[in-house]
Design goal:
The structure is a homodimer. The longest helix of chain A is centred in the last third of the chain and has 18 residues, at about 295-310. Chain A folds into three domains: about 5-55, lambda repressor-like DNA-binding domains (434 Repressor (Amino-terminal Domain), Orthogonal Bundle), CATH 1.10.260; about 60-160 and about 295-320, Response regulator (Rossmann fold, 3-Layer(aba) Sandwich), CATH 3.40.50.2300; about 165-290, Rossmann fold. In chain A, about 50% of the residues lie in helices and about 20% in strands. The radius of gyration of chain A is 25 Å and the shape is elongated. In chain A, strand 9, helix 12 (about 275-280) and strand 10 (about 285-290) form a beta-alpha-beta unit. Chain A contains 13 helices and twelve strands. The first copy, chain A, is of the alpha/beta class. In chain A, helix 5 (about 70-90) runs parallel beside helix 13. In chain A, strands 2-1-3-4-5-11 form a six-stranded parallel sheet, sandwiched between helices. In chain A, strands 7-6-8-9-10-12 form a six-stranded mixed sheet, with helices on both faces. Chain A binds a DNA duplex (16 and 16 nucleotides) through helix 2 and helix 4.
Amino acid sequence: MVTQEDIAKILNISRTTVARALNGSENIKKETKEKILKLCDELGYVKNPISTSLATKKQKKIFAFLIQSKNKYYSMELIKGLKKAEKEFEFYGYKIEIIETNIDHPLDQLNQLQNIMKEERPDGIIIVPLLKEEIKNIQLRYPKTFFITLDVGIDESITYVGVDYFKSGRMAADILMNVMSKGKKVLVLDTKDDRISSELYLKGFLSRINEEKKDIIVGPIYDDDLKNNALDIIKKNITKDIEGIYSSRFLADIIKKTKDLQLNFKVVGNGMSEQIYNLILNKNMIATVVEPWEEEGYAVGKIMFNYLYKNDTYNGKKYIVESKIVFKENLR
Amino acid sequence: MVTQEDIAKILNISRTTVARALNGSENIKKETKEKILKLCDELGYVKNPISTSLATKKQKKIFAFLIQSKNKYYSMELIKGLKKAEKEFEFYGYKIEIIETNIDHPLDQLNQLQNIMKEERPDGIIIVPLLKEEIKNIQLRYPKTFFITLDVGIDESITYVGVDYFKSGRMAADILMNVMSKGKKVLVLDTKDDRISSELYLKGFLSRINEEKKDIIVGPIYDDDLKNNALDIIKKNITKDIEGIYSSRFLADIIKKTKDLQLNFKVVGNGMSEQIYNLILNKNMIATVVEPWEEEGYAVGKIMFNYLYKNDTYNGKKYIVESKIVFKENLR
DNA sequence: CTGAAAGCGCTTACAG
DNA sequence: CTGAAAGCGCTTACAG
């Protein structure tokens, strides 16, 4: 393994100067810097992050801007993953400060972000961006801070960690088509709700079915208050040949209600919650396609760490966490 | 964070002595050692593995005894995972030497293991144990070496990393029951082959189906040369109401053959291979339940690292890597 | 713009 | 049985 000392000796200069070149210090003559960097490159020098960590006492400042949504499960799991990464790298002094703001108050997030940027000059920001444009502008103003957007992309230039809701919708459709009997149909209900995840679930679901069995879909029937009106809608639209039902939101609520009516639909859904868990356990639902949020949190925590502490940039700027298919048997 | 120096100061002794107590050195009076350990415990001292790594130049010796079986995919992926762990911890000087022996020559493995133990005095051994008793004896003779058995357990006292083939079989059954039409049956074929994985797949598969729909199973029909005789067996046993087919081995081969006969079974299997991949891609197979071997390799590499370099023992001694359900849509 | 030196938290010969 | 000291590969104030 080649060290800074090796480089210094060959070039007949001090270790300090080599370190300076490597760390992008201002106080170094251009030519010496170039000379050093060139040699480092030739010899394949790579900095030992362990030594760096030991020598660097200053803690890096990292903030994770998460959102509080109705789905408690989501941020709970995400935080679990972040904590796991934190724990794993604790001896590097790795710490992530978590800031949760309400999904319905995007300005809160923006204001807090602005404050943090000004006061703390953080090294890293992990954010589920709500006001994308404004956040993009902030990111541009602080080029020294490493930004990762979580679950919602802003643009190609910003590292992104997320899941593929669209694909999850397609997966649910794939499974559902396989469990449905020949000639039967599936009723699709949805709200006009604009939450990213549900919209993408539905789009994916429909895209997959339309590829193959367009005619099995009844709907989608949209309703703004689906949670309350679902039962009426179902009663109005139900026919003999409808065997399946799908909705990207409130599916669990809907199933519960239809259960009382002895309507035993075949159901494959998206996402996880206590309700969904129990529905699968009790065979009121066949399967669900789940985003492993803990894994996602861990992944984003690790990517931030690798960037900040190991100079790792990964190949791409996009990291997609794979969804899981859950049937009763692997409900756990 | 409390350091060895802190401990030393409080006790009015040297850092060296503290280190000695912590590292289980012989050259230390019993009382001083106890005193030190007690204080460390009280103050919640935990060694900084980064400093240790930097100070310790001697590389630890780790060997992974894998087996070459017919399934190339298996060890390829496993090795990929091990390499990934190696890469991640390279700055700690983490290296794993891989030794592959043939599954049909268990004595080869034993001999090589004996040699390595004698000549190298390794710090860690990862092994897919073939001759369990003999390997257990070796493990007992070298208490300083940390053993992990992979994929095959020896006993409760040895850390184990593996997959749950039985559960995978159950998962396949769960899926298959959901995709099968009412009143239809599934033909189950198998060899008397004693490979652990296939036997457990089958047992799991049958256990799940018998829990619920005992009568849908036709078979299992056993044949020693299933690969060649499958078609005849199927012809002999096929009836109108048989819709599904399952085998823990050669399933892909069997499907390929039945395809020519226009027998379009509904198939859910276990494991992954190029053949299975293509069958799913072309819809000759609905789904498969897969052991993520790369993940398993990475997991075992990381557990060994954590033990040797971080004194991490995990809570349990058993680490099960979860299987994945793969339909066409998440075939990748 | 450059270098000598101290220090991060540990380990480990060496001397006593 | 114990301690002073050198060293792992880096960073960074300090002096020049």
